[in-house]
């Protein structure tokens, strides 16, 4: 039965009303509403509704026929919206807010600006000027490019007299080609551009050429609200990869080839361009790693056509007993856990074999982390086992005993998605979960008995001012301080458990240089320690990664909470000038390397061993010049079924502790494994 009734609507009207047709303002916030609760038949009676508040609910989309012809103001904050295109049914909408919907991006902002011609305010900001540009200039440029693409590549393919089969074939080829090859604007808007290009191309075919456009798209796959879990055997997992693409797979031909170097000369006035050009040229000559495998093992429904599933996190398995390993090729593990979409995979980096695969049909995994627990088995003997924690969109942590192919438990940690998880290096059962509910929780996951019974408990809650994206425990005192990169800054907490306070505010917020002065308000989407003291963080400042000193920045003797402290910058690393967020970084402390992917599929590698000793001294000075990457690994020109995959973003890149393998996770459902030569 729907939560919304006539009586509820009359009661929640502002002011209360006796007739649905008289309601102009309606507050339906904080009712735990889901999409199915919005009954179009009931809403169609709200003919004069102008203001609607649906904030703080559980909506993942809008029904297509709510029929609110006079709606002017809509508040959808704090929901689970994944798509905005249904909002076009409200053509008179002037003010729209949908903040804290974690799956909506800048691309969705541009979509609503195009679809809603009367929109003036979006998330509290006046977008009139930008929206006019999107509707006019952007559309004009894309239309010109789409038309030119047809004229150059497809016009001569259509005979004067054509059959319906020929129309369907050329339409399919043209739409696919034009979305791949027509590029305009920044890469951060590529999804919006493809969406508009497809729309313009369909209109072009329909109106300019008179080609009928019957949708060939398949209906969206429906999933049961009840979760479906499965753990696949190595053979089943291998069959999945065979279906959806390995570099050696005969069904999906993936051909790596070296990207051609650009020999164009840099402008003498552009020192930055010249520096980067030189770096890339050196990188091409000094190849210290080679591509080993390209896997497509996280596909939804094992579809080999899936180039949309985003891959987010990977971590190498700890070695239980390195002496017992038959293959002495590495002193650290060559097995890596990766996650993205509905699955978690365990991959042998040397062979490219997917050893195990764990799937939850209703989940989207964002983060994985390993710990080694000591379990008491039936005869009272102790046995070490590696446990993998996996979490994501549903706010639930899955605990998987990988060797036994068994998910033995779960922790319902948060009501909103979990962005990242990590285990304490000193307390094997202590797990931190950072969530979109603006909280970081510390859990004791317990140790399972021989029947896998366990008891988890929450030990601590850290309150954040904005969504936490990355967390790191301070290596010199991992039981006392935690550092977090958040949507609105970099924060530190005292996490010592002997303090009585179970819920704690942050103890410090760090300020960094920006374009003009200093700021504490910036997105920190990359955070890791290079050694015991040096922190590496990436923020919203374009083209820059900061290295700074924890001990010289954090005043442990100061009193009080929520203090502002200046980060003592040791150096800046030169990186891509993209404004794309959430391309995170990682470090390899044993080899003193920093890694960060970019918006073009490349991996920027920095060997900082020659700098660390200077930074370690008490009077260590800041490096005057930005440090260029030691090497940039270019993404090979892969071809899948004869075509290149769409735009490739490197969401994450991680090396094993010995830096033998480098695992690259992308936005197009491809895991690339490089091996250091």
UniProtKB/TrEMBL annotation:
Q: Which GO terms describe its biological process?
A: chromatin organization; DNA replication; establishment of protein localization to chromatin
Q: Which UniProt keywords apply?
A: Centromere, Chromatin regulator, Chromosome, Cytoplasm, Cytoskeleton, DNA replication, Kinetochore, Leucine-rich repeat, Nucleus, Repeat, Telomere, WD repeat
Pinpoint the Leucine-rich repeat and WD repeat-containing protein 1 WD domain residues: 288-676
Query: Does Nucleotidyltransferase count among this protein's keywords?
Result: no
- Molecular function GO labels: chromatin binding
Q: Which family does it belong to?
A: Belongs to the LRWD1 family.
Q: Which organism is it from?
A: Sinosuthora webbiana
Tell me where in or outside the cell this protein is found.
Chromosome, Centromere, Kinetochore; Chromosome, Telomere; Cytoplasm, Cytoskeleton, Microtubule organizing center, Centrosome; Nucleus
Q: What protein does this entry describe?
A: Leucine-rich repeat and WD repeat-containing protein 1
What Gene3D superfamilies does the record tag this protein with? Answer: Ribonuclease Inhibitor (3.80.10.10), YVTN repeat-like/Quinoprotein amine dehydrogenase (2.130.10.10)
The residue spans of each WD repeat are 411-445
Task: Give the superkingdom in one word.
Answer: Eukaryota
SUPFAM superfamilies attached to this UniProt entry: L domain-like, WD40 repeat-like
Looking up PANTHER family in the UniProt record yields:
LEUCINE-RICH REPEAT AND WD REPEAT-CONTAINING PROTEIN 1, OPTICIN
Primary residence: nucleus
User: Which residue intervals define the domain Leucine-rich repeat and WD repeat-containing protein 1 LRR in the entry?
Assistant: 7-200
Disordered: annotated span = 215-288
UniProt biased composition (Acidic residues): 215-231
Tell me a GO cellular component.
Answer: centrosome
């Amino acid at each position: 039965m729907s939560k919304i009734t006539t009586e509820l609507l009359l009661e929640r009207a502002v002011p209360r009303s006796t007739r649905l047709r008289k309601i102009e303002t309606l507050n339906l916030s904080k009712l735990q509403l889901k999409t199915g609760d919005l009954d179009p038949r009931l809403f169609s009676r709200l003919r004069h509704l102008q203001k609607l508040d649906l904030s703080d609910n559980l909506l993942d989309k809008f029904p297509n026929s709510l029929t609110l012809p006079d709606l002017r103001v809509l508040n959808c904050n704090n929901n689970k919206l994944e798509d905005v295109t249904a909002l076009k049914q409200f053509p008179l909408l002037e003010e729209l807010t949908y903040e804290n919907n974690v799956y909506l991006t800048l691309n969705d902002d541009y979509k609503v600006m195009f679809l809603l011609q009367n929109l003036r305010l979006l998330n509290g900001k006046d977008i009139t000027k930008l929206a006019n540009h999107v509707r006019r200039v952007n559309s004009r440029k894309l239309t010109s490019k789409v038309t030119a693409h047809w004229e150059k590549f497809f016009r001569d393919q259509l005979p004067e007299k054509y059959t319906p089969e020929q129309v369907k074939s050329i339409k399919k080829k043209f739409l696919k080609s034009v979305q791949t090859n027509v590029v305009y604007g920044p890469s951060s808007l590529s999804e919006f551009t493809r969406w508009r290009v497809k729309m313009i191309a369909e209109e072009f075919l329909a109106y300019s050429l008179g080609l009928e456009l019957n949708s060939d798209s398949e209906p969206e796959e429906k999933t049961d609200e009840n979760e479906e879990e499965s753990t696949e055997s190595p053979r089943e997992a291998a069959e999945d990869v065979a279906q959806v693409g390995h570099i050696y797979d005969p069904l999906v031909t993936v051909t790596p080839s070296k990207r051609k170097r650009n020999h164009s000369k840099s402008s003498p006035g552009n020192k930055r361009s010249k520096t980067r050009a030189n770096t890339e040229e050196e990188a091409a000559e000094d190849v210290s790693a080679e591509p080993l495998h390209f896997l497509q093992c996280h596909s939804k429904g094992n579809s080999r056509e899936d180039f949309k599933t985003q891959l987010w996190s990977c971590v190498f398995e700890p070695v239980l007993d390195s002496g017992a390993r038959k293959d002495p090729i590495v002193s650290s593990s060559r097995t890596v856990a990766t996650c993205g979409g509905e699955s978690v995979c365990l991959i042998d980096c040397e062979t490219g074999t997917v050893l195990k695969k764990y799937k939850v049909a209703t989940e989207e995994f964002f983060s994985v982390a390993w710990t080694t627990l000591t379990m008491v088995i039936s005869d009272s003997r102790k046995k070490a086992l590696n446990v993998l924690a996996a979490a994501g969109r549903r706010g639930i942590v899955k605990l998987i005993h990988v060797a036994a192919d068994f998910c033995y438990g779960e922790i319902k940690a948060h009501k909103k998605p979990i962005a990242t998880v990590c285990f304490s290096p000193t307390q094997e059962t202590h797990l931190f979960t950072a969530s979109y509910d603006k909280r970081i929780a510390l859990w004791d996951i317990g140790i399972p008995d021989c029947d896998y019974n366990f008891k988890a408990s929450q030990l601590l809650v850290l309150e954040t001012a904005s969504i936490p994206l990355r967390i790191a425990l301070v290596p010199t005192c991992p039981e006392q301080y935690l550092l977090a990169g958040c949507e609105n800054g970099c924060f530190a907490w005292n996490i010592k458990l002997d303090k009585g306070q179970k819920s704690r505010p942050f103890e410090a917020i760090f300020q960094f240089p920006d374009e003009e002065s200093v700021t504490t308000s910036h997105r920190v989407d990359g955070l890791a320690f290079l050694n015991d003291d040096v922190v590496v963080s990436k923020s919203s400042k374009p083209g820059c990664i900061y290295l700074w000193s924890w001990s010289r920045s954090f005043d442990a003797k100061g009193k009080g909470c929520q203090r502002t402290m200046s980060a003592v910058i040791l150096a800046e690393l030169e990186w891509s000038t993209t404004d794309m967020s959430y391309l995170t970084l990682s470090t390899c402390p044993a080899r003193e390397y920093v890694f960060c992917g970019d918006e073009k599929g490349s991996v920027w590698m920095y060997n900082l061993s020659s700098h660390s000793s200077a930074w370690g001294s008490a009077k260590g000075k800041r490096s005057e010049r930005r440090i260029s990457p030691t090497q940039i690994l270019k993404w090979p020109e892969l071809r899948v079924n004869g075509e290149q995959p769409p735009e490739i973003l490197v969401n994450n890149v991680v090396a094993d502790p010995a830096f033998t393998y480098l695992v690259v996770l992308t936005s197009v459902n491809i895991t690339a494994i490089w091996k250091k030569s």
